[in-house]
């Protein structure tokens, strides 16, 4: 187990370097010059532009720029933003808490409500509950997230005034509730469906019959045997989804005015802030890598037959 | 059935949770209302994260400008007709040929840290901003001042001086500005953001200052929560006449205009500076008399480039194209009244605007348009290509303009969409525009000069269409060399008439502000640069 984890962690290094390299090159290949953009519609002052580029090291060959970036990164220096002259690490740590809170809340919704709905449907597969839940999940997966977002915002926020329509203070969990529900709704439907299929299938398996035969109460049989065995595909999905929620909240963040990671990378991309984009995306990659590792390790916990050497 | 019942429970749990949070936010609001009608109330304005550090000479976009223009007071400002009035200056006077300007400051002004504002503070700040080593993106604004080339040489050269020789302090409250060439309207330029003073503490640590600026304006900077809000509070010892009638301003950062609009509707935000295009059709009904629509100094044009097929096209063709565009209908339908049809190269809020300067060239007349195009020898390749950036909400009106041209002139019209503004600019810089590009210009100072010499002089760096006309250049130069403002304005008005004959661009419409305010505030108005006059807003 320990060796497996170490091996996986070591594998992350080339993935990380490769990913940063590709993103760095892609940023470089994009048309548009962030320094030029400081002057907007107006023609730039050539001398000033050259001086700024020299100052930021942007006049160097691209490979040298990447090398400088990478060596800085290893020493914990994420670089500086071009327009705002802020440290990129400050930008990331500013945006991160909001996204983490939103993601956790959405993840909580996805996992709890999704699994509960899936279980309810799976146990009564073919019944009325199953069909109602099928309908709800179908609705949630087919309506685009920005439609749900604006709908909820208009009705719950503006018309009925139950919640504040936007997030003005990202430390306020109450304000994050609505965006978290919107963000969770799509994954929630997937989780419900995955759980339902898995539960419906395993319900008729041999070990369930044995469990009942040896006198376990129905609820205990479901909790300890059925649910645990049905969770493997769901955990895989939830793991990937955590990463998605993290990075893919751009639309939701935009609608509800949450200044999170998704938003930060979007604005940085628009203003060609290379260091910021590479920094944030590398960070997201790290999260993905760690989460998949945790998911793989969780398999072994759920199913003792899976062993890692 | 059991499932359905539990679903009901979940639903009611959510309702309870919603209700709980709603109560919370109501509580906050009533706190503000209870103190109502007083000078301690805080105005919440929509904004965003300033792109650049908060230093006056490094501020080029609206979010930063909203902070800078309230933390700092300019020497002078402009009224709705583009006339100058003094703010921090007692007087700004030119010598006979407008080559030396004397600025007298008003007495009793202090920075927010308590130190007195003197002429030296202005001179030092401008010298710092102009110096090439300090990397300020507005440094070229000081280019008129004698000695600028010594501190800000051409590319590849080293600066030979630390200070511009043209700035000299006469006494504590007076300084002189000597220009390399006479500029009769130099005082107009002084109304731009970088021409402000900086306190002594700035030079110790410019970086720290840019996170917590200290000015001499009506509001003192209090706090900057990145990406969330910037808090400004009324400066008690403010010496200017526009002392705030409220307690301060919170500039709230929004990810988008629509989010801000939703907050305005629910009174969680007090002033919105621009309504999202998608809400334009409804905002006047939504807000009633709390909706504000007024013009500001910006123009939108489409500009033919002179290096391609459109190089030797008869201006008559361009006049024809102009007359084939139904500006009235497009501005009132597609643009929902957010623009006003243009009838001049300079908008109405600037000094020197001539109503109806275009004659009938901006009037919709398809028949005359066809005649003009035919007389001029037809549209090259029978095709018009309009380049624009997809991230600015231009698609709709470009399509509408194209449809006009197709229907009225029987030509092809297509758009060349660049994904964003940076890419659009890159094509313009590199002379790679196919036919027309979308031109937009917002006033730096409200004078007709600003809308012409920067865009259509053959040597102007922002002249991406590479328009080159001797007569126009000559009239511009005459205007620049004139000894008095009146002569300058008149020369440019004359030049404008020539512009309508030579058509360096097709003016489409002027910009409007579509703004609004909440039930919590009153007396909301905007200046001609589109920024709210924060000091005048009263909190109920």
From TrEMBL, chain A:
Its main location: membrane. Belongs to the binding-protein-dependent transport system permease family. The chain crosses the membrane at residues 12-30, 102-120, 132-153, 173-194, 232-256, 276-302. Keywords: Cell membrane, Membrane, Transmembrane, Transmembrane helix, Transport. Coiled coil: none annotated. PROSITE patterns: ABC_TM1. InterPro entries: BPD_transp_1_N (IPR045621), MetI-like (IPR000515), MetI-like_sf (IPR035906). This is Oligopeptide transport system permease protein. SUPFAM superfamilies: MetI-like. Residues 96-299 form the ABC transmembrane type-1 domain. It holds the Pfam family BPD_transp_1. GO terms for biological process: transmembrane transport. It is found in: Cell membrane. The keyword Transport applies. It is a multi-pass membrane protein. GO terms for cellular component: plasma membrane.
From TrEMBL, chain B:
Pfam families: SBP_bac_5. The keyword Membrane does not apply. CDD domains: PBP2_NikA_DppA_OppA_like (cd00995). Residues 1-22 form the signal peptide. Residues 84-462 form the Solute-binding protein family domain. Keywords: Signal. This is Oligopeptide transport system substrate-binding protein. GO terms for cellular component: ATP-binding cassette (ABC) transporter complex; periplasmic space. It comes from Streptomyces zhaozhouensis. GO terms for biological process: peptide transport. PANTHER family: ABC TRANSPORTER SUBSTRATE-BINDING PROTEIN, PERIPLASMIC BINDING COMPONENT OF ABC TRANSPORTER. GO terms for molecular function: peptide transmembrane transporter activity. It comes from the Bacteria. InterPro entries: Peptide/Ni-bd (IPR030678), SBP_5 (IPR039424), SBP_5_dom (IPR000914).
């Amino acid at each position: 187990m320990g060796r497996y984890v170490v091996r996986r962690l070591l594998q992350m290094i080339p993935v990380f370097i490769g990913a940063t390299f590709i993103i760095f090159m892609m940023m470089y290949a994009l048309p548009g010059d962030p320094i030029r953009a400081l002057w907007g519609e107006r023609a730039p002052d050539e001398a000033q532009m050259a001086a700024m580029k020299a100052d930021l090291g942007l006049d160097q060959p691209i490979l040298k720029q990447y090398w400088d970036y990478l060596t800085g990164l290893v020493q914990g220096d994420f670089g500086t933003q071009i327009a705002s002259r802020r440290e990129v690490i400050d930008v990331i740590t500013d945006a991160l808490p909001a996204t983490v809170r939103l993601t956790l809340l959405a993840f909580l919704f996805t996992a709890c409500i999704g699994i509960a709905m899936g279980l309810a449907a799976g146990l009564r597969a073919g019944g009325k509950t199953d069909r109602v839940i099928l309908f709800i999940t179908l609705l949630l997966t087919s309506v685009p997230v920005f439609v749900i977002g604006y709908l909820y915002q208009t009705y719950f926020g503006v018309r009925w005034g139950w919640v504040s329509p936007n997030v003005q203070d990202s430390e306020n969990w109450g304000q994050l509730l609505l965006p978290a529900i919107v963000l969770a709704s799509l994954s929630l439907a997937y989780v419900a469906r995955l759980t339902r299929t898995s539960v419906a299938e395993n319900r008729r398996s041999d070990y369930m019959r044995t469990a009942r035969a040896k006198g376990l109460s129905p609820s205990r049989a479901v909790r300890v045997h059925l649910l645990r065995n049905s969770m493997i595909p769901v955990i895989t999905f939830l793991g990937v989804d955590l990463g998605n929620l993290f990075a893919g909240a751009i639309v939701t963040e935009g609608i509800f005015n949450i200044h999170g990671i998704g938003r930060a990378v979007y604005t940085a991309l628009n203003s060609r802030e290379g260091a910021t984009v590479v920094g944030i995306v590398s960070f997201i990659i790290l999260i993905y890598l760690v989460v998949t590792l945790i998911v793989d390790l969780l398999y072994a916990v759920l199913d003792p037959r899976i062993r890692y050497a | 059935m059991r499932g359905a019942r539990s679903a009901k429970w979940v639903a009611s749990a959510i309702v309870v949770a919603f209700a709980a949070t709603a109560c919370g936010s109501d509580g906050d609001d009533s706190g503000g209302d209870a103190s109502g009608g007083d000078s301690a109330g805080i105005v919440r304005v929509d904004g965003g994260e300033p792109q650049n550090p908060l230093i006056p000479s490094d501020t080029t976009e609206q979010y930063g400008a909203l902070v800078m223009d309230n933390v700092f007071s300019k020497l002078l400002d402009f009224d709705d007709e583009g006339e100058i009035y003094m703010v921090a200056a007692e007087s700004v006077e030119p010598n006979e040929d407008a080559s030396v300007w004397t600025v007298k400051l008003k007495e009793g002004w202090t920075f927010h840290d308590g130190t007195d504002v003197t002429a030296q503070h202005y001179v030092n700040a401008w010298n710092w901003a102009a110096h090439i080593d300090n990397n300020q993106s507005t440094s070229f604004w000081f280019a008129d001042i004698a000695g600028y080339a010594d501190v800000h040489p051409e590319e590849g050269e080293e600066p030979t001086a630390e200070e511009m020789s043209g700035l000299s302090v006469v006494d504590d409250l007076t300084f002189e500005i000597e220009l390399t060439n006479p500029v009769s309207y130099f005082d107009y330029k002084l109304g731009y953001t970088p021409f402000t003073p900086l306190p002594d503490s700035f030079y110790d640590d410019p970086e720290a200052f840019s996170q917590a600026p200290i000015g001499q304006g009506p509001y003192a900077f209090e706090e900057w929560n990145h990406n969330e809000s910037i808090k400004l509070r009324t400066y008690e010892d403010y010496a200017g006449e526009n002392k705030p009638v409220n307690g301060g301003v919170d500039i709230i950062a929004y990810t988008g205009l629509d989010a801000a609009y939703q907050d305005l509707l629910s009174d969680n935000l007090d002033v919105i500076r621009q309504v999202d295009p998608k809400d334009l059709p409804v905002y006047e009904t939504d807000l009633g008399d709390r909706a504000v629509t007024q013009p500001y100094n910006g123009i939108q044009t489409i500009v033919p480039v002179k290096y391609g097929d459109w190089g030797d096209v008869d201006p008559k063709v361009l006049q024809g194209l102009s007359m084939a565009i139904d500006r009235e209908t497009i501005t009132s339908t597609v643009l929902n009244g957010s623009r006003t049809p243009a009838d001049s190269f300079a908008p109405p809020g600037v000094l020197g605007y001539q109503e109806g300067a275009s004659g009938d060239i901006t009037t919709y007349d398809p028949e005359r348009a066809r005649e003009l195009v035919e007389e001029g020898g037809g549209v090259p390749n029978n095709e018009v290509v309009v380049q624009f950036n997809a991230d600015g909400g231009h698609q709709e009106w470009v399509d509408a303009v194209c449809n006009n041209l197709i229907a009225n002139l029987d030509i092809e019209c297509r758009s060349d969409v660049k994904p964003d503004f940076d890419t659009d600019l890159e094509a313009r810089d590199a002379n790679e525009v196919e036919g027309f590009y979308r031109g937009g210009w917002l006033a730096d100072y409200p004078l007709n000069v600003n809308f012409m010499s920067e865009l259509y002089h053959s040597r102007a760096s922002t002249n991406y269409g590479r328009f080159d006309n001797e007569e126009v250049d000559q009239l511009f130069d005459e205007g620049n060399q004139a000894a008095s403002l009146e002569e300058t304005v008149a020369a440019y008005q004359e030049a404008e008439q020539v512009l309508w004959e030579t058509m360096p661009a097709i003016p489409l419409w002027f910009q409007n502000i579509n703004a609004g305010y909440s039930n919590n505030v009153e007396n909301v108005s905007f200046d001609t640069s589109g920024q709210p006059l924060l000091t005048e807003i009263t909190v109920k």
